[in-house]
Amino acid sequence: MVARFGPSLERVVVSNRQYPPYGTYGPKPEYEDHEPYGRMYQDTYRPAYEARVQAARARQATGPLLHRPTEAAPRTGGRAPARHAARRRKGRARTHSVRRLLPQALVVAFLAGGTTAFIAKDKAIELTVEGRHRTLHTFADDVGELLAREGVGVGAHDVVVPSPGTPLTSGEEVAVHYGRPVRLTLDGHRRVVWTTARTVDGALEQLGVRAEGAYLSTSRSLRIHREGLALDVRTERTLTVMADGRLRTLRTNAATVREALERAGITLRGEDTTSVAPGSFPVDGQTVTVLRVRGSREVREEPIPFPVRRTQDPTLFRGTVLVARAGQPGTRRVTYALRSVNGVRQRPRRVRVEVVQRPTTQLVRVGTRARPESVAGAEHLDWEGLAYCESRGRPRAVDASGTYGGLYQFDRRTWRSTGGSGRPQDAPAEEQTYRAKKLYVRQGTSPWPHCGSRLYG
């Protein structure tokens, strides 16, 4: 009876016994082709086959990391092989136990070393922020890292002790003081300062401001919040005051000179003033003189000079100046303040001007025409003698009636008939002589019935 289980494995069953396939553990037996079925033979392959199967199962049980050598087929019978097998099993168990304990030992060693490092990095720190104290444990290396981990922000005006870059050690004390802006007006000078003090009194001490006898705009015990506050401080100063013939020394924290005088019982009345501005800030060591002022008003009327406007006139000889319209001065009313300081009369001060009458502008004509050198038929006569006889040689002479004027006492009609303009007494002496010569050539000495004979010497 033959049973087949595939191309790789074939067993021959003879009389209910199994044999391995041909060629598996040795050469092909010679009896297959020569002996009839049913003959019984000794099984020489089965022990080796079963030993190999057991070795394969042992390898599968221990896994791919532990490779064991293939055991030889156990010998049948005897105690020596049993002892050897027991020793081998015991050695394998010991090796397997060591291999199992080794990772556990490594884990224990790692945890022990990490715990030591953990304890070494941990630091107990005393942290104080704005007076609030607490104790904490941290792994931070320096003060700045500690503040960052604790969420404590600091700015340029905040104070950290020790500084943020300082390394931390266990038991260290770290303090944070926040800066506060103070809009300080100290003795009239304004500025913004920063302080870590939490009260006005502490801020004055930090800033070095002497508070004894000083004026403070707020209470010294007032708390300063993070947003700051405005503070007006006036320290006590010494003033020397000269008033009403007396010299006295004052200690004051007043805001103005006037206030300091009033506190000393010195009152300014009317126009009274001081040698420094009464509203100015008093300076330490300053000397102030009180000026008693007594004043009055005076009104005066003063003339306003008239302006003169000159124009060129080509009809007049060069050098001739003719007043076409005489100017008239105006009038103004001026109010003066008269005062005396400490009994000494001061220069009057003009405080008001009112125009009563405006001045009239004087118009003057200036001749530009070229003057002739001579008048034919009249150059050889004594004109100086005639002028002396008529007006005593005065070009501006006017008779008592106001009809005749100038060197030769022209009336206006005769003056204009010779080419003159304006009044004869306003014309230059040369022009008056020229007009007189023209009149002589035309009429002879008849215009001067009493003095005409002087022309002939």
Automatic annotation (TrEMBL):
UniProt KW Nucleus keyword: no
Region (Disordered): 68-96
SMART domains (alphabetical): G5
Keywords: Hydrolase, Signal
Keyword hit for Signal: yes
InterPro entries: DUF348, G5_dom, Lysozyme-like_dom_sf, Resuscitation_pf_RpfB, RPF
Residue ranges of domain G5 in the record: 290-370
One family name in Pfam for this protein: Transglycosylas
Superkingdom: Bacteria
Comp. bias intervals (Basic residues): 81-96
Family the UniProt entry places it in: Belongs to the transglycosylase family. Rpf subfamily.
PANTHER family, sorted: CELL WALL-BINDING PROTEIN YOCH (PTHR39160), RESUSCITATION-PROMOTING FACTOR RPFB (PTHR39160:SF4)
Identification of the protein by name: G5 domain-containing protein
Organism of origin: Streptomyces glomeratus
